[in-house]
Design a protein that fits this description.
The protein is of the alpha/beta class. The chain is built from six helices and 13 strands. Strands 1, 4, 5, 6, 7, 8, 9, 10 and 11 form a nine-stranded mixed sheet that branches. A two-stranded antiparallel ribbon has the order 2-3. Helix 1 runs antiparallel to helix 2 and helix 2 crosses helix 3. The longest helix is centred in the first third of the chain and has 19 residues. The protein starts with a strand and ends with a helix. It binds uracil. Uracil binds next to helix 6.
Length: about 210
């Protein structure tokens, strides 16, 4: 698995405001969108393109456009929804599929409650949006769904990641034969006893949607 931790002062600055418990929900949502756009720029570095002939006002030339089949963006509900706008801004023609997953706060096991994905993902590059890579349970389940449907390359975009979650992903997909990438804004210290990322930012869904 290829892991890219964004190392950019603007990302670190925005992450610091995001982590602050005094940051209100509207500001939090706005920052998540901005951060995702910055991370998506890195995550789409190898997005497939094909040649296209155009004519500029000066002369004909060859450029590129996103290749068919289009990439698929999969926000994991609930918190991944807060990342969709920032991703769509960068790749507006991507197809969007949804996965609803919830983790049991006691067992930390992820289960699926909604699934609106194309049946056939053969040959598709998929971008999974989930703000927090904590235990890794949700992302492993989501990526397995995509692999079962034929996805050929999967990139997870996470605002924050814990080392424990990265290790779980690496172990789960080491023999899958499908390239898995992770692009994350920061690699935090660890998980606490409740499965929260430390120092983290708290519950991303609650902070996005004003539950706290
Ligand atoms: N999910 C969250 O929203 N926050 C964490 O710290 C871990 C999982």
């Amino acid at each position: 698995m290829k892991v890219h931790v964004a190392n950019h002062p603007l990302i670190s600055h925005k992450l610091t405001v995001l982590r602050d418990k005094n940051t209100d929900s509207p500001t939090f949502r706005h920052l998540v969108e901005e951060l995702v756009t910055l991370l998506a720029y890195e995550a789409t570095r190898d997005v497939r393109v094909e040649k296209v002939e155009i004519v500029t006002p000066v002369q004909p030339t060859t450029g590129v456009k996103l290749a068919e089949p289009r990439p698929v963006v999969v926000p994991i509900l609930r918190a991944g929804l807060g990342m969709l706008e920032g991703m769509s801004r960068l790749v507006p023609t991507a197809e969007i599929g949804f996965l609803g997953m919830v983790r049991d706060e006691k067992t930390l096991q992820a289960s699926t409650y909604a699934n609106r994905l194309p049946e056939d993902l053969s040959g598709r590059q998929c971008f999974v949006l989930d703000p927090m890579l904590a235990t890794g349970g949700t992302l492993v389940a989501a990526i397995n769904f995509l692999i079962e449907r034929g996805a050929t390359e999967i990139t997870a975009i996470c605002i924050l990641s814990a080392p424990e979650g990265i290790a779980v992903l690496e172990e789960a997909f080491k023999d899958s034969g499908v390239p898995i990438n992770l692009v994350t804004g920061a690699l935090d210290e660890r998980l606490n006893e409740n499965g929260y990322i430390v120092p983290g930012l708290g519950d991303a869904g609650d902070r996005l949607y004003g539950v706290v």
